[in-house]
Write a structure and sequence with these properties.
Blueprint: H1 15-19, E1 35-41, E2 47-53, H2 55-58, E3 63-67, E4 78-79, E5 94-95, E6 101-102, E7 108-114, H3 117-126, E8 128-133, H4 140-143, E9 158-166, H5 169-174, E10 178-186, E11 198-204, E12 209-213, H6 219-230, E13 237-240, H7 257-268, E14 272-275, H8 278-284, E15 291-299, E16 305-315, H9 326-333, E17 343-351, H10 366-384, H11 388-395, E18 404-405, E19 408-410, E20 417-418, H12 423-434, H13 436-439, E21 446-447, E22 450-463, E23 468-475, E24 481-485, H14 494-506, E25 513-518, H15 535-562, E26 570-572, E27 575-578, E28 581-584, E29 592-598, E30 603-616, E31 621-632, H16 639-658, E32 689-694, H17 712-728, E33 738-739, H18 743-753
Parallel strand pairs: 1-14, 10-33, 12-13, 16-17, 24-25, 31-32
Antiparallel strand pairs: 1-7, 2-6, 2-8, 3-7, 4-5, 9-17, 9-19, 10-15, 11-12, 11-14, 15-16, 18-20, 21-22, 22-30, 23-24, 23-29, 26-27, 27-28, 30-31
Helix pairs in contact: 6-7, 10-17, 14-15, 16-17
């Protein structure tokens, strides 16, 4: 009987050590001779650096060094783009430490290395800085004027405009029977992790080896960048992935600190550690989401969508770094979502402002663009007098149209297509699960002082980004198997799902997969990490290839020892048999083989979400009475971990829809620099959330048939919540065009009618 671990709801094996407090995070590391780094950050949003005097700080007992840009031979290195490395972005890239100008509050100016954090913080106070203030570019509206430039060279604050095109939208609008144009906006927030960022570096001069702990997300890429910046061969650097308290797309990219701490450790020949405090986390880790769109939809009177066009503006913050362009690109390419829109023309401009730079955050660009689209669809359906469910159903891409070509994005030319699926099926299942026909009767009704509203929306989630992932299998001394994988663990449960995949591929019990090692550069020849919901698709497929290579090598070796042909060899739990004889697996300890999976196509999981809310108009409070997500993720490896991913991402999406907002004033000062001001959802805020996961339509582009599915709950949350609140407050004719829906904003919508 064949194994069937794939598809089984197996509890996460990594949870036991976390629940027992046995996880090892970067701040748990305390090698002998450890020094601590503290970073002086700019309190000015925009200005020219006149002088930095560190002499007084160096006199403080316990201070070992104060590093500024002047201490770096050849000048401060630049943080490069990892994704979409277009030449247009070069002038806007960030130096690892400010040397001529500061461009956002929180930009590094100096690094103090001391015996303790407390001594380092005292030294920060002793550093004398003179900065000539310049007018702050507080948002994209100011940036667009190009009166005050962040970078003089390009002569503009616009780094790039992405264009998404399908068909001929302008022609479709000429004689369209119906057109509606609207403006929508999403607020600025980010992927706040429970554990802030941390880096520890150790330099072994005798071996010429630099070890960097605290790596996450993309260790191999970060090693390539650091090697180039610091002047070492790649194999002279080891990036060690420790346990990580959350990633969400923001943590693990290459930040200034990822150079500064290794540089300090090498300069001093001592271990150096830096742990971000929460205020630093709020103002220095990548931000996301802030965008505004002017968009219009053309339809037939029967609701058939003809075309979509518009222009969006994204606030990029002060620099283009690592993956900062992804959100803006996705706004353009995925505004059509899962709907059949034959003609698309969308432009998205990327504006530089004096704010923290942006990067990816779970569902980058898709959360924003889904809110824009789904809110617009409800308004259009209302105008046309068409049921909003039927309006969506009519325009969903049909199963028979798969694979379905979507808009082409440029200048980073990229063509893409949805791989497989039945979008109508997930919509129907979602409506059934939430009891739509009955709850629709409550729309707009005032019951016990609360206005009730419902909404539904459809979404797609891209995943499985290539180009490659690597895996390796090895027999341990006791005959168990270790798995080594280039994918990183940022909380998604990879130790469990990779064990399931390996056990099935090798046809052995799950408990024979003793260890799953991931992320660190020491494990495999090459790796690409965890982003774009790629770990199972790419890493799992690489593991299948490794298993095939491993079994072939084991069969050949066993055949030699047992005196038979390799085709006669069988692997049975803990032994290898052939020609009537057998050997224990432990006899082959050390046998190892690597495998890889190369693919440049994307997977697209999809689904529908529906919400039932009750709004207290007197105080602007919104309660979620029921929320259902239905998502088809191709072939599901572990439905238990998948549901956890869907619910977790949904909670983050609801946080962005209701609470989270990074606010700046006109001088570029961050006003929400603590968790007293930046509000987050807690376990009690959204107790009634349900996830139904389906695997009806495997992906045809990978041998597992899996689809990335770690972001779907997030993607649709903003649009569904906005429409549910608007539906509840329909008697007030609410002007609902902006997120987050804070109590103040909801209350103000009810007051305009009054």
């Amino acid at each position: 009987m064949k194994n069937a671990f794939i598809g089984s709801a197996i509890e996460r094996r990594e949870d036991l050590r976390f629940l027992r407090g046995r996880g090892e995070y970067v701040d748990d590391l305390k090698p002998d001779g450890l020094l601590y780094a503290v970073i002086l950050r700019s309190s000015v949003a925009h200005g020219r650096i006149v002088s930095i005097d560190v002499s007084a700080a160096l006199k403080i007992p316990g201070v070992h060094a104060v590093i500024t840009a002047k201490d770096m031979p050849g000048g401060a290195p630049i943080v490069p783009m990892r994704l979409q490395p277009l030449p247009e972005f070069k002038p806007f890239e960030q130096p690892v430490i400010a040397h001529d100008k500061v461009r956002y509050v929180g930009e590094p100016l100096a690094v103090v290395i001391a015996d303790s954090v407390a001594i380092g913080e005292d030294a920060l106070e002793a550093i004398e800085i003179q900065i000539e203030s310049l007018p702050a570019v507080a948002d994209w509206h100011v940036a667009k004027r190009d009166q005050n430039l962040l970078f003089e060279g390009p002569g503009t604050n616009r780094s790039l405009t992405f264009n998404a095109v399908r068909g001929d939208a302008d022609a479709a609008f000429v004689n369209a029977p119906y057109v509606r144009r609207e403006t929508f906006r999403t607020g600025r927030h980010y992927g706040l992790t429970m554990e802030p960022r941390g880096v520890m570096a150790q330099w072994d001069a005798a071996k010429g080896l630099l070890t960097v702990s605290g790596a996450a997300k993309v260790p191999f890429f970060n090693r390539r960048i650091l090697a180039k910046q610091i002047g070492l061969p790649e194999d002279s650097i080891e990036m060690i992935e420790n346990d990580v308290g959350g990633g969400f797309g923001a943590r693990g990219e290459f930040y200034p600190e990822d150079f500064l701490i290794p540089f300090a450790a090498r300069q001093l020949n001592r271990p150096v550690k830096w742990i971000e405090d929460r205020r630093e986390n709020l103002m220095a880790m990548n931000h996301a989401r802030e965008a505004e769109v002017d968009v219009e939809l053309a339809c037939e009177r029967d609701g058939t969508i003809l075309a979509l066009r518009g222009h969006a503006h994204v606030d990029m913050g002060a620099y283009m770094r690592t993956n900062g362009a992804v959100g803006a690109r996705n706004i353009a390419q995925f505004m059509a979502g899962p709907y059949r829109i034959p003609n698309v023309k969308l432009d998205v401009s990327l504006w530089m402002t004096n704010k923290t730079p942006v990067g990816t955050y779970r569902g980058p660009g898709r959360f924003e663009t889904d809110f824009f689209r789904e809110r617009l669809l409800d308004l259009v359906a209302q105008d046309l007098g068409i049921d909003r469910v039927e309006f969506r159903r009519k325009n969903l891409v049909a199963r028979s149209e798969m694979p379905y070509q979507i808009a082409t994005i440029s200048p980073y030319l990229h063509e893409d297509e949805y791989d497989s699926g039945d979008y109508q099926a997930t919509l129907d299942r979602c409506l059934k699960e939430i009891g739509w026909s009955e709850k629709a009767k409550l729309a707009g009704r005032l019951i016990d002082g609360h206005y009730h509203g419902i909404a539904v929306g459809c979404f797609i989630e891209g995943g499985g980004a290539g180009p490659k992932e690597t895996a390796r299998l090895e027999i341990n001394d006791d005959g168990s198997i270790s798995v080594y994988i280039g994918s990183s663990a940022v909380g998604q449960g990879v130790e469990t799902v990779f064990a399931q995949i390996a056990a099935d591929a090798l046809e052995i019990p799950l408990d024979r997969i003793r260890w799953v090692h991931h992320g660190s550069t020491t494990y495999v020849s090459d790796g690409y990490g965890a982003y774009h919901s790629r770990s199972v698709v790419m890493g799992g497929s690489a593991l299948l290839d490794a298993a095939n290579n491993f079994k072939a090598a084991l069969s050949e070796e066993a055949a030699k020892r047992l005196g038979c042909d390799a085709s006669e060899i069988t692997i049975d739990e803990d032994k290898v048999s052939g020609a009537g004889k057998s050997l224990p697996l432990a006899a082959f300890a050390g046998l190892t083989r690597e495998g890889a999976f190369l693919n440049k196509k994307h997977t697209y999981s999809y689904g529908a979400q529906a919400a039932h809310v009750a709004v207290d108009a007197k105080i602007g409070k919104v309660d979620i009475l029921d929320y259902v997500v239905v998502q088809d993720a191709g072939r599901i490896i572990n439905p238990l971990t998948l549901r956890g991913q869907v619910i977790g991402s949904l909670v983050q999406g609801l946080g962005g829809a209701f609470l989270e907002n990074l606010v700046y004033d006109e001088q570029g000062q961050l006003l929400t620099g603590s968790l007293a001001d930046y509000l987050l959802p807690t376990a009690s805020d959204f107790p009634r959330l349900r996830a139904i996961v389906m695997d009806e339509h495997p992906s045809p582009i990978n041998p597992l048939g899996a689809k990335g599915a770690g972001e779907g709950g997030m993607v649709g949350a903003g649009g569904v919540i906005a429409n549910a609140v608007a539906n509840a407050l329909q008697s007030f004719n609410p002007d609902l065009r902006e997120l987050p829906l804070t109590p103040t904003r909801v209350w103000e919508m009810t007051q305009k009618k009054a």
